[in-house]
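User: quick one, fold this
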Amino acid sequence: MNNKNILVTGGLGILGAALVKKLSKKKLYNIFILDRSKNINKIKVLGLNKFKKIKIIKGNFNDYKTVFKVIKNKNIGVIFHLGAITQVIDAYKSPMETFNSNIIGTINILESIRNLKRNINFIFSSSDKAYGSLLDEAYKENHQLKGNYPYDVSKSASDLIVQSYVKTYNVKAGIIRSGNIYGPGDLNMDRLVPHVIISSILKKRSILRSNGKLIRDYIYVEDVANAYFLLMKKMIKSKEKLRIYNVGSKENLTVINFVKLITKMINGKHIVPIIKNNSKIEIYRQKLNYIKIKKDLNWSPKSKLKDSLNSTINWYKNNLYFFNGKLD
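Assistant:
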């Protein structure tokens, strides 16, 4: 087991790419990304091809043998499990695929660690949606996990399963439950920020599946990547077996107000979106209390909303070629 050898699932996603870059810039780590496609265009647009210490292994964490082999053969000491089906609407349409990926996929990694009998630092990407409906002012880490809808349940269940492996099999784990991540490198056009930014650049109306009144923590990807990095460093030095942290934001906004801000920044005026209002499977209001991580890891969100949105918008403008035809 070597803490300089790091495995990342979901390494070509928005959070994974930001975290991998952060780790690569330290020049201390050997990073292995487990990805199904090994998509060269994705790797280039994310800028990951510039880092020599990143190795992309073609494979799927839904396959236990693949996961076991990679962890064993690459002498992995740290695992960031960020890979998942992340879209609420995708989970609604394909619950079986979602549960298989988000729950069984997580178990595959935990089982590999258990069977290898190695002291591996496992860091799991949970979600504020794992908590279910918000009854108080903000979620705290001891809030009961009680998701209702397929995506939410997949995160509640996998979060609890990680905790079970810690308590039952002495696995060492960290869990981060974050709000809605935005920033450069989000290639999923079904997600709010890429869709609204690219629609606005092309002077098209964006489409909202909700009524626009849902309230969320919006958090810049660099802040979230920093939280994962700080957690890893703490876990390597500490003997504590389980650490759970909320990673929240100062920006708790309605969807419509967030969209207004983006469209005004791009076009100088608000372009009214098309509101479908056909999403009945989402929590109305979410807000995370992040006092614990601030106290334990000295983490807090550093980014200013307009500055980070400006960086995000500029990234999409510079990489618009990648998204050509995806709004048609």
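User: anything notable?
Assistant: The two ends are 48 Å apart (CA to CA).
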